[in-house]
Amino acid sequence: MENLDLKNIKPYGDTLNDGIIQMSFTLPVPPSGKSKEAAKLYLEKIGYTNVYITTMEKAGESFSFFVAYAKHNTAINFEEIDVPEIEVKIRSMKEIDNLIEKYLKRALRVVGACTGSDAHSVGIDAIMNMKGYSGDYGLERYKQIDAYNLGAQVKNIDLIEYAKQIKADAILVSQVVTQKNIHIQNAKDFIKKAQESGVIKDTILILGGPRVDHKLALSLGFHAGFGPGSKPSTIANYILEEKLKRESIEI
Amino acid sequence: MRSIIKNYATVDECRDYANKIAEDIQSIIDQHSTESVERTTLRFMELDGVSSDGVPLVNTLVEKARKKGVLSKGIVHLIGAYYQLEEVESIQEAIDEIIYDSEVDWKLLYKTELTTSTKEELTIFFQNRYKKLEQVKANKLEKKNRLKVGKEPLKYLIVATGNIYEDVAQAEAAAETGADIIAVIRSTAQSLLDYVPYGATTEGYGGTYATQQNFKIMREALDKVGERLGRYIHLVNYSSGLCMAEIAYMAAREGLDYLLNDAMYGILFRDINMKRTFIDQYISRRICSHFEISINTGEDNYLTTSDAFDFGYTVLTSQFINEAFATLAGLRKNQMGLGHAYEINPSIPQSFLYEFAQAKLIREVFPEAPLKYMPPTKHMTGDIFYSHLIDALFNIASKITNQSIHLLGIPTEALHTPLLHDRFLALKNVDYMFNAFEGFENEFDVVEGGLIEKRANQILDDAHQFLKDIADRGLMSVIGEGKFANIKRFPDGGKGLDGVFQKNSDYFNPMISLLEK
Predict the structure, then answer these.
(1) Residues contacting residue B505 through CB under 8 Å, at least 6 positions apart
(2) Does an H or E element contain B184, and which?
(3) Assembly ipTM
(4) B348: chain A residues, CB-CB within 8 Å
(5) How far apart are CA B240 and CA B303, in angstroms?
(6) Mean pLDDT across the stretch B193-203?
(7) What is the mean pLDDT of residues B392-408?
(8) How many CB pairs lie under 8 A apart between chains A and B?
(9) Residue B211 pLDDT grade (very low, low, confident, very high; cuts 50, 70, 90)
(10) Option in B177, B305, B414 nearest A125 (CB)
(11) Which spans in chain A are helix H?
């Protein structure tokens, strides 16, 4: 794009650098001219200009819901942002199976669970169950992956013990509930226990969940993190490549 | 719109199979009780409160009896024997004292035969408590009658802040913007607690603890807002997990309207022992049947776990089984809020036609049931605008197939527990669709031999085949093969089995006798 300065990027509405943002929020006061003005002032106070409150609706007796468009002058230096991203090749299940067989010469053992009090097995199931997710088969379907899905509400220590017992190559920890950052607390607890038990040394530790990204996972001590929309084959590819890297095998 | 079921005899046979399946299990239920049922019995006797270290008194007492190995005649037997042997004036005094008496000779209590007069006194004691619950029910019905209930599909909204007082503020706002039913989502994993927390609570994860005090606070708030709006606002909570029957009692006591209560959900999705679940669901449903509480079953979970397109028939199968169990527990058809969901992958061509087929089929199979239709969750992403669109189609499907209870789809599904304006937008969406599609079903018909009709009859046939198979081989063994939701569970596995016991021939429990009338 002409005139695009990556050192100073801004939201794009219909013109480069117009800085237009759409927003919606609620104020705990009933709708009135005053409330609408309050919404506008609020946005101005946090630095927006050209504030346009497009609607004010009564959301219960004492609440007003607003949709607003406004401009903001802040720019971001895109070039200096550092976000570690997992770079893996895109390979099909068959390709992955073949590579495991050819280079690692044995099936990989992967164990996964949604740990702590979290009762949602939906994430771990999407990655591990035969059926998979979004047309991408789950790890159980891979010929060269022995996948063990322990389900939800599994204690961190139980998952670790299980992994030790089967000599897992990788452990998948899913965290779905994020209220009051319980997912972070629990992930930290997992890493602490993984360190104590020693599995951290030779097992690939992977964190997944709707509020997880690679950066967060790394900061907590995992080897990789996968956020929403991640597909089973991406994770299988990552495990394969990480395993090859660790065993210094070049393909 | 004409019926899409080609052969009603198939439906009748499905019911016959389901009845056989449930009756086989019922014979096990009748011979057993659980610690949770005994605790429910104590709650029925109005034993409430917690010890200094926060343990509910009902747990303390039942646990004591279990440790001494004297529970098989029931907790009431022990209280009755204590009343007979000790110098106490009344049953009430016996309860008050037995808890704190450190010198109870439990073995002696167990061996003591209850006299006819003790049994009579106990029965009267229970009858009096029963009357109080009937009074709560009468009040509830009076309010419902006077304030009037909204039009079906009733709009069901969830609050889940973790703090009951914050929940009240959100529930009030939801009611003011049109909600008919408020569900207070429970704190994650409460289903696995083998006790019911006590008092008003302000901390929870992913939801708010179900406690009797929290029920009371929310019920009072909804009554107030209902009076102001001139519309009855229903209250929902969860009678699932390890304390099904206790929660059912608390709900009866505080005037709740619906309880999430499924004969198999705990087994499959919470790994609670089968026997434990079957027994607890029975007593909990007995309570519901007497005190005008409708159940909501959890078939939507099959579709979030397995694929909604391939496993649609497991929903119908489970609904038949839930209906059969509910019938054995005395529930009327119009108290059976069987569940299902709009969960087919939106990228599948003609997905709406398939959803419609399933929703209409279920409506036709269970014409009197207050069916509960659950919104899409599995295929929702962070794109709230797209999610809002999927919800719009769900709303249309619900309206034109005449579902009874409509759990609102929220555009921020999969992101966070609903914010106040997420709910507002969801209600606006529903209002638009319900209004726009009013009377639609009277103007259109389903094509004979078309995709919808074929799909619906295929699901029915598959459910028929599955039910036949279960009836032949028994529900427990089929669950053991992972035929429901791809999850395998075994009769001696799962949580809570140690709380199941066989009833002695002298088992005595006036609560159950009253509930089985």
Answers:
(1) none
(2) strand B181-184
(3) 0.79
(4) none
(5) 19
(6) 94
(7) 98
(8) 78
(9) very high
(10) B305
(11) 33-45, 93-99, 122-128, 156-166, 182-197, 199-202, 214-220, 232-246
